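Reviewers asked in the last cycle whether our approach scales beyond single polypeptides. To address this, we selected a multi-component target totalling 454 residues and predicted its structure end to end. The input consisted of the following lines:
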Amino acid sequence: MENSGFTHTEQNYIKAIFKIQEITSKKTVSTNDIADRLFTQPATVTDMIKRLAEKKIVTYKKYYGVHLTAKGEKIALDIIRKHRLWEVFLVNKLNFKWDEVHDIAEQLEHINSDELIVKLDDFLGNPKFDPHGDAIPDKHGKMSSADSVPLSSITKKQSCVFCGVANHEARFLQYLDSLKLNIGTTIHVESINSFDSSYKVKINKKQSEFFSAQIASYILVQPVNGK
Amino acid sequence: MENSGFTHTEQNYIKAIFKIQEITSKKTVSTNDIADRLFTQPATVTDMIKRLAEKKIVTYKKYYGVHLTAKGEKIALDIIRKHRLWEVFLVNKLNFKWDEVHDIAEQLEHINSDELIVKLDDFLGNPKFDPHGDAIPDKHGKMSSADSVPLSSITKKQSCVFCGVANHEARFLQYLDSLKLNIGTTIHVESINSFDSSYKVKINKKQSEFFSAQIASYILVQPVNGK
DNA sequence: TTTTAATTTTAGATTCATCTAAAAATTTGT
DNA sequence: ACAAATTTTTAGATGAATCTAAAATTAAAA
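The resulting structure, written as structure tokens, was:
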């Protein structure tokens, strides 16, 4: 594959379009959404998507936004694969904390060498998930489905395993750290406040905590003995 | 330090100027020498060194070449430190061969994060030399002197330890591999041909080999029981 | 269904890094 | 020491990535 032929900037646009598609699950991605995500001007985005359209990375209809082609999606998944593998490296090997790795991985994801990624993947033990619980696409772009749901969708008292976050802000991750809530930790739902949809939970069979509805929506879990 | 404020390209020029200074040990580095090393045009180099001069990275006198300032030298050493640490990572951790790592390290050296380099250095066990035997500058730019000499400067039959190369071409490194000549291997000089200055040596007390004067000049050794 | 608001595109500039061709300065050779 | 050769710089262009301001198009609202 050797993602050459695409500049850093082009790669960033491709990834941004992919992520917006993922989040909004709309058919097309708007110029403004891309501009917002990349902290750039709509005019700049228009120029870039024209170039990406010429390179058959996106389909583009004036005034109606863009959509990644199969080729574009493959490139996006390849960048995401690299990003998440590097995050695993930074956390598991270099002892970075999970809230510190994003910016560095954002740089490392642009390093261009297929052989490097093969060897890095092996070195890390071919991980399927990154330190935040996000699935790592394999070399063909396939992702193992995490099979997780937001804690906020749990409606009865039961045990769950914390397996990912739906918010990657450093401040949120640090908050979870302060509760000693790590990926793999058991969360037992003790009660749900039907008024504000907040949760009272027990973490690791130890301390009790309260989660607002918002926080509960950011905590991804797998129900245990789920019925 | 956080080498920000310098583009990839600027960093490449700074490193190139440093290396040319190192090789030629002349006071100033010429426009053409930089152009040759970076496979670019002299006119392009003139533009860039003007910018570097404005940023106080080099001293520049029209028509008389450039010289790195203390600031420029510090930046160059920082880039070289990163390059060599990454090479250690690639060879020692990812099992790349020593002839395969240059281009990848050339990309990785531009990753910008002081914390990353501190942690990488620790992870690698604070190595003092890279896989080719080149000294790794410490965080202050200090390098441990390798104390090595080219095999071609050895004038009598004696044992030496192979500790580095003065030529980093993949083909040369592969040639040494084919002789099972690795860093640390003992080379015993059996005879020196006074006509063409070629060497007959025994490697690791096993096979005998012949080295032309040219090859001998590329093999760096530390004499054993040196007198 | 028009008018208004929001979004998107075009037009014209700027900066970085690069090029070629031509001019200027330095170095070399006789 | 002067002409020839080499090196270096200037001048003018180009492409990538960005900006602002204005024009065009689409979407929303009265």
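Chain A touches chain B at residues 90, 93-96, 100, 103-104, 107-108, 111-113, 115-116, 119-120, 123 (CB under 8 Å). We regard this as preliminary and will revisit it once experimental data from Aim 1 are available.
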